[in-house]
Design brief:
By secondary structure, the protein is of the alpha/beta class. Helix content is 45%, strand content 16%.
Length: 942
């Protein structure tokens, strides 16, 4: 059993902690990068502020936002939004009816001949009603309409928790001096409406008092016109003012017809539409201040229409949502303004996206250097790897976001200060999680760090520009379906741009309820789309993580489907070995070509078939007809790297795999270690199928790959500590195992173990790779050319370590050194052209494929012919293969050769022929290798 997930997580966490501690300067620079952006923007703001404050003349244009204005010298606290400012959206506010101030309202003061007006004493008390005059052809019908002009309130207090939108049912009015009010036919004592309103970052309840609206009948329209004229003040004598709020002429209206004429005050004195506390500017398309009469007509017509619909009894009602001006762009001037919302969204978007290529390249680096698969081959599961990697990048992202918000606020940028910090953090946190998952997914498609880096930064630049040029125009196009906007926001960069856009846009248009920026209450506003963006990011985050995990585990959708199909078939058959054997499409091909193979290869294949029939055996490794084919590209033929290799290894045995370059040795090791998937066939490691149980297999194997897969910024000891923890070592046992491994490969003395691997020589890295493969007592160890690049002394020490390690485990070793194979390997298999050519012990191979001996004789010059006659006297079939300066070599077949006769003959002729030296050598493993490789090439050509 390998380490638990908790132990794996602990090992990976400790390793990453060491790496990040050594890279702390880089991380600090990355986290502090937002300071650069905020400093530039803050510096520009300070420069603009100083330039504006030193100017001797006031600015000739309004600041963006709205400015206080006054009418006739009376400062009412009104606001004007000039045309220089952009206004893609209006603030939420119900339409407000303009009525005369209490001191100017019509009363029975002798100016009018009618007695139905309130007493003039109401002016002193401020209780005069707001008078509306009504006439029409059908008096009874019109009087019924008059009674339903105002939405009735029967309770002493009404709390509108839904906000200002709920006020649209009530006739909200303002007189320009006192507080706002709402109109009723009859006001109950202390009758008020209460609704929530934002002040800065706080939400408070706003109370609106009741004002009585008096509907008075007049017999004709000319009487109304006369009364309106009399009520309007003459010249500058405002003491003569007796103003009527408005007048209606219903003409021939009845239950089936609705005709209406509205009279209202459209005087130029109302150039600004304002209230006492919460003024609301009305903007037309040109950007100038719009006169209130357009809203006056709309509000007055709405009152009459709702009253008429009420009489019809159909339950219908016409409600306002909110008023708005036409969208427009900004006209920029060099006057003083808050630069943060106008510096543009791109700098903020690009700054937030900066971590994407960082995360992407880190993930691709581990794929390119094969460190990910190296950790996996030593037992690191997918869940601990993803958890630690994700947590690290999330922590880095959180520090980055907090740095972004902190520096922006400290430097006084309203983009950060006026928007709710809580709302900002939630959206930035959600986006950073999405960005991490998106980088994880994209990392599965790259194998080169350079390509990933270029692509990552290109994505940042291009997506930001597309968002600014294309996506922004769609967001501001009110005629475009919101579904298209939602579809575009599926690209994470567009989601981020929408967030930055809304945060920035909230500062361009002042919130006319004494607040600014995006607050929590704005999350429910469908106009800004923030709730939808948050939902999209959460769903995409989950989808991207799931897809990244799937592709990392299976490599592609096809591989995952294939593995699932194999697993289903195995479950149906009930016997894994039998199911796999039935899937072997190469069995008939083997039967047809069995006569062409050597006896030892055939015997090995029969042993494998026999082992597959047994439920358990003492064999650690069983390869069943493994085959690997690389598909040809661009019209090239397929390349068969491994052609149906079958072999077996018992525990405590070392198998050497020899072969020329390109023979398929490394491909075989890669299939057994999970580096690549077999095209057909399979292998069983400790009874587990490499196609189905590779994760379990990894917990019990050690690997020394052909290339040194090491972290440059970790020491040799730290490498062994990490891999030792993955093998469940801890405490003193871990320390002892590390010390023993370092001593066995000569990396202990001189402090070499505590130096960074980046400073190691090639031989030192190779020895460390061997030590890593042996740490933790793995059951099966793969070594791909472990001694390459080592000096003779280091090679001898390495051989000692391998000899000692193979006592209780199986070792598969590839090498080009015949000496190494003879010293370390119990059995040797020679592979050529992707096929297993022969297998057996060194002595068996020499006996079976050597077949000859070499006799070397050295004499003075001129004695060569006599020596040749001597050799042919006791072995006529001997073949002289070498003759230079008295030294001759004869190749003799072992068949029929008696070694004793050779020795006797040479001793007898030593003095007679003046033989200086002679020797008889058996066939070497190198000779066997050359002969087998040559025979394989000849058979391939044939």
């Amino acid at each position: 059993m390998g380490a638990s997930r908790l132990e794996q997580t602990n090992a990976l966490f400790r390793k990453n902690l060491v790496i990040q501690r050594r890279a702390c300067k880089t991380n600090c620079c990355l986290v502090l990068f937002p300071l650069l952006l905020c400093s530039v923007i803050g510096g520009l703001q300070i420069a603009i502020d100083r330039s504006s404050s030193s100017s001797p003349e006031p600015p000739t244009h309004f600041d963006c936002g709205c400015s206080n204005v006054s009418v006739d010298g009376n400062a009412f606290g009104g606001l004007v939004c000039p045309s220089e400012c952009p206004l893609p959206r209006a603030p939420r506010w119900p339409p407000v009816l303009q009525i005369p101030p209490p001191e100017y309202r019509a009363a029975g003061d002798g100016l009018f001949p009618f007695t139905d007006l309130p007493d003039a004493s109401c002016r002193a008390r401020g209780t005069c009603t707001s008078t509306f005059l009504v006439t029409g052809g059908n008096q009874s019908f019109v009087r019924n309409v008059m009674d339903n002009m105002f939405f009735p309130v029967h309770d002493a207090s009404v709390n509108l928790s839904a906000g200002v939108s709920a006020l649209s049912d009530f006739v909200l009015a303002t007189d320009g001096h006192s507080e706002q009010s709402f109109l009723q036919n009859k006001c109950i004592p202390n009758l008020t409406l209460s609704y929530p309103i934002q002040y800065g970052n706080e939400i408070a309840n706003q109370d609106v008092r009741c004002t009585e609206g008096l509907m008075l009948w007049r017999d004709s329209s000319w009487l109304i016109n006369d009364e309106l004229y009399r009520g309007y003040y003459q010249g500058n004598d405002k003491n003569k003012t007796d103003e009527i709020a408005a007048a209606y002429d219903f003409l021939s209206s009845d239950q089936g017809n609705f005709n209406l004429i509205i009279s209202y005050n459209a005087s130029n004195d109302y150039d600004v539409y304002y209230g006492a506390e919460d003024p609301v500017p009305l903007l037309n398309q040109g950007g100038s201040v719009q006169k209130p009469h357009s809203v006056q007509v709309t509000r007055l017509a709405n009152m009459a229409s709702n009253a008429y619909l009420h009489l019809r009894g159909n339950g219908l009602r016409m409600s306002f949502d909110f008023v708005k001006g036409m969208p427009r762009v900004a006209i920029h001037y060099l006057d003083r303004f808050d630069i943060s919302p106008f510096v543009g969204k791109l700098p903020f978007v690009w700054t937030m996206e900066l971590l994407f290529p960082v995360i992407l390249t880190n993930m691709v680096y581990e794929r390119q250097k094969k460190l990910r698969i190296m950790m996996k081959m030593h037992g690191l599961g997918d869940l601990p790897y993803w958890t630690i990697s994700y947590c690290y990048f999330l922590l880095l992202s959180l520090l980055y976001v907090l740095s972004f918000m902190l520096f922006g606020s400290v430097l006084g940028l309203s983009f950060f200060r006026k928007n709710s910090y809580g709302v900002q953090f939630v959206f930035y946190f959600a986006y950073m999680n999405l960005q991490i998952s998106f980088a994880f997914l994209m990392a599965t498609y790259f194998s080169s760090v350079r390509t990933a880096t270029v692509t990552g930064y290109l994505y940042i630049v291009v997506s930001g520009l597309l968002a600014e040029v294309l996506f922004r125009s769609y967001v501001e196009d009110v005629s475009l379906s919101r579904s298209w906007i939602t579809l575009m926001e599926l690209l994470p960069a567009f989601s981020l741009y929408r967030i930055i856009y809304e945060f920035s846009q909230s500062l361009r248009v002042e919130n006319y309820m004494a607040s600014s920026g995006i607050q929590w209450i704005d999350m429910s506003d469908p106009k800004n789309g923030l709730a939808g963006v948050l939902t999209i990011m959460i769903l995409e985050w989950f989808l991207f993580l799931l897809s990244a995990f799937y592709l990392d585990h299976y490599g592609s959708l096809r591989n995952g489907t294939r593995k699932a199909a194999v697993l289903v078939r195995t479950c149906i058959d009930g016997n894994r070995f039998q199911a796999v054997q039935q899937q072997n499409t190469q069995l008939q091909e083997f039967r047809a070509s069995v006569e062409m193979e050597r006896t030892d290869v055939i015997k090995e294949r029969e042993v494998v078939e026999q082992l597959l029939q047994e439920s358990s055996s003492g064999y650690s490794v069983i390869c069943d007809n493994l085959k690997k084919v690389y598909r040809g590209q661009d019209g090239n033929a397929d390349k068969i790297a491994v052609k149906g290799i079958s072999l077996s290894m018992s525990r405590g045995q070392c198998l050497g795999v020899l072969g020329p370059n390109g023979a398929g040795k490394t491909t075989l090791i890669n299939m057994l270690t999970g580096f690549s998937k077999p095209t057909s066939g399979t292998a069983y490691i400790e009874g587990m199928d490499i196609r189905l149980d590779m994760d379990k297999i990894y917990t019990g194997i050690g690997v020394c790959p052909q290339d040194d897969l090491l972290w440059e910024n970790l020491t040799g000891r730290e490498h062994l500590m990490f891999y030792g923890r993955l093998k469940k070592l801890k405490g003193t046992s871990l320390a002892e195992a590390i010390e023993q491994s370092l001593r066995s490969v000569r990396l202990f003395a001189g402090g070499v173990a505590d130096k960074l691997v980046g400073k190691y020589s090639g031989g030192m890295k190779r020895r460390l790779s061997v030590a890593i493969s042996l740490v933790g007592d793995p059951k099966v160890v793969y070594m791909d050319e472990p001694s390459s690049g080592l000096d003779p002394a280091s090679r001898k020490d390495l051989w000692k370590a391998v000899k000692s390690a193979k006592q209780e485990r199986s070792i598969i070793l590839t090498t080009h050194s015949m000496e190494e194979a003879e010293v370390l390997c119990d059995r040797i298999g020679i592979i050529a052209n992707g096929s297993l050519q022969c297998i057996g012990s060194s002595k068996e191979l020499k006996d079976r494929y050597g077949g000859s001996c070499v006799l070397t004789v050295t004499t003075p010059a001129g004695k060569e012919e006599e020596v040749e006659r001597l050799v042919r006297s006791f072995l006529p079939a001997a073949n002289r293969v070498y003759c230079v300066s008295g030294t001759q070599k004869f190749e003799m077949l072992k068949e029929g050769l008696k070694i004793s006769e050779v020795f006797r003959a040479m001793e007898d002729a030593k003095s007679r022929l003046n033989i200086l030296a002679w020797g008889l050598a058996d066939t070497t493993l190198e000779d066997v290798f050359v002969r087998v490789a040559k025979d394989s090439d000849m058979s391939t050509v044939t």
